[in-house]
Amino acid sequence: MTQLQTAHRARFASIGSPYFGIMLAIMAVVLILSNIGASKGVLIGPVVTDGGFFLFPLAYILGDVISEVYGFKVARKAIVTTFALSVFASLCYWVVIALPGFDDDYGLAKQAALENALGPVPLIVLASLLGFLAGQTINSWVLVKMKQRFGEPKLWARLMGSSGVGEFADTLIFCSIAASVIGITDFGMFANYVVVGFVYKTLVEFLFVPVTTAVIRWVKRREPSYGRIAA
Q1: 3-state DSSP call for residue 225?
Q2: CA-to-CA separations, 180 to 55, 70, 114, 124, 176, in angstroms, rounded
Q3: Integer CA distances (angstroms), 90 to 31, 35, 128, in order
Q4: Are the CB atoms for 163 and 64 separated by under 8 Å?
Q5: What is the pLDDT of residues 58-98, one digit of tens each?
Q6: pLDDT tens digits for 12-56?
Q7: Cα-based angle 79, 222, 77 (whole degrees, multiple of 5)
Q8: Can you give the pTM of this predicted structure?
């Protein structure tokens, strides 16, 4: 192997340290909370979005960190695990709603509030499952392929490039399913929802590239096994 090939070799870490578990836990919590928030339609001036708009990009940033540090196979495990936990949370909501409650006015009002707040969540979870699974998988695959091609340099380029294609796939799939749940009924509002969602999520990820880069470098320096796995 030449010196150039060695310098550009893609390096990753194993998941033996606690860092991966911490990021996976945060990623799962962010997704579960964003699924709840996404059941509420939000109108800010002419902008149509949902209540989870400020949380969801964080899951992609964490996905970038995991993909860059641990590789595609580990990132795929993180995506599947995150969604398994999200589906479990949705099933728990269903059980809570189905359990018989008090039949006084307060109990009935609380039951109605739970149904209105958490009832749509299974459909939101389905939208997230398909959208996030596709988007995160594409995002991780593109990032790792770029790293395998160029090695450690140009981290900013693979973060931005992978985020753009991943977020577009995610937003289109998610909005197509979630639109009717949050009350979007015409094409104009739907187009607004898709465009605003894509531009917002991508812009947030682009603005956070310096932060994401700093976090990735911090984890790489403290991950004992980083560099021992090559692809």
Answers
A1: coil
A2: 21, 37, 19, 10, 8
A3: 12, 9, 12
A4: yes
A5: 888 899 999 999 999 999 999 999 988 988 988 888 898 88
A6: 888 888 899 999 999 999 988 887 887 777 888 877 777 777 887
A7: 15
A8: 0.80
